[in-house]
Backbone:
């Protein structure tokens, strides 16, 4: 009986004693969480402080105080040719980097990217980033000249989107440049970096592109659009090709895509010229003119000598 009473006594508890014990447990758990949080905050602050000191130490090294230099990376092959080095030099100058600039300037790369984007030679700025040794490495897409446009006393470069590129050149400066000339464009040139919005120029650029890979390309020197769309004489060819034989012309006709069934297509005309080149080794057959507007299988040639004309009008 005594053992039974002790068991009952042991089972008795004061009212609310369970809540007191639970409250103590929760208070201890909260204390542990607060302590863990304090440790995390302390470690984070210490790490940030350490990183700040490390950054200060690294930035104090001589490599971070060398003159800032621009490197144009992934330059396309056409721009690496010796005769085009002046274009790269122009782009580097437009980037506006001076040796006095600080490599540690946080806005340096953004500033360089904006300046490069305003260059008439740059189609798109891909990236600008800081690299070891004070180098700023820029990657861009460039506008490649495709033709000279003659206007007045000057010649201007354009790309395949008819965008005017930097510079203007005298006629004597472009003689050996290797690009096709376009003569007869009616509208004046726009500002550098702006599209030259002219239908006759767009048609000429399309024909220049068609001629680029032709085996006889080196014998063609100019695309003439004086009579584009028959604006001077509807019965004369709308476009002509001037060859490297002074005064010799190929009467091309309507602009590519505008034949309307009245003339052979551009593809047929090119095939006809390829055949002439293979047979005569001269795309103009050595004649003062040939006319390829009538048939995709034959050409019209002069029946008697004609007076030689200058390839381009003044």
Residues:
């Amino acid at each position: 009986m005594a053992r039974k009473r002790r068991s009952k006594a042991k089972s008795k508890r004061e009212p609310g004693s369970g809540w007191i014990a639970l409250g103590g447990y929760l208070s201890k758990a909260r204390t542990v969480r607060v302590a863990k949080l304090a440790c995390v905050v302390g470690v984070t602050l210490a790490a940030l402080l350490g990183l700040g000191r490390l950054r200060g130490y690294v930035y104090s090294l001589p490599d971070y105080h060398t003159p800032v230099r621009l490197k144009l990376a992934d330059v396309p092959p056409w721009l690496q040719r010796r005769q085009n080095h002046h274009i790269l030099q122009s782009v580097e100058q437009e980037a506006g980097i001076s040796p006095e600039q600080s490599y540690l300037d946080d806005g340096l790369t953004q500033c360089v990217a904006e300046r490069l984007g305003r260059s008439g030679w740059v189609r798109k700025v891909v990236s600008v980033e800081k690299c070891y040794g004070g180098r700023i490495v820029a990657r861009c897409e460039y506008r490649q000249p495709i033709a000279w446009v003659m206007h007045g006393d000057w010649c201007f470069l354009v790309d395949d989107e008819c965008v005017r590129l930097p510079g203007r050149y005298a006629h004597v400066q472009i003689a050996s440049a290797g690009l096709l000339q376009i003569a007869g464009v009616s509208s004046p040139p726009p500002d550098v970096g702006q599209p030259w919005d002219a239908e006759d120029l767009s048609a000429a650029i399309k024909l220049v592109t068609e001629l680029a890979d032709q085996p006889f390309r080196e014998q063609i020197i100019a695309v003439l659009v004086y009579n584009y769309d028959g604006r001077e004489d509807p019965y004369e060819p709308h476009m002509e090709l001037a060859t490297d034989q002074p005064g010799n012309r190929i009467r091309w006709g309507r602009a590519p895509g505008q034949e309307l069934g009245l003339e052979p297509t551009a593809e047929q005309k090119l095939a006809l010229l390829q055949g002439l080149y293979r047979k005569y080794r001269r795309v103009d057959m050595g004649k003062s003119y040939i006319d390829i507007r009538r048939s995709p299988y034959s050409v019209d040639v002069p029946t008697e000598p004609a007076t030689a004309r200058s390839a381009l009008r003044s």
Remarks:
- The beta strands are 69-73, 122-131, 135-142, 147-151, 154-158, 180-183, 220-224, 239-243, 249-253, 289-291.
- Helices lie at 2-11, 17-59, 77-80, 85-95, 108-117, 199-211, 266-280.
- Residues 18 and 201 are 94 Å apart (CA to CA).
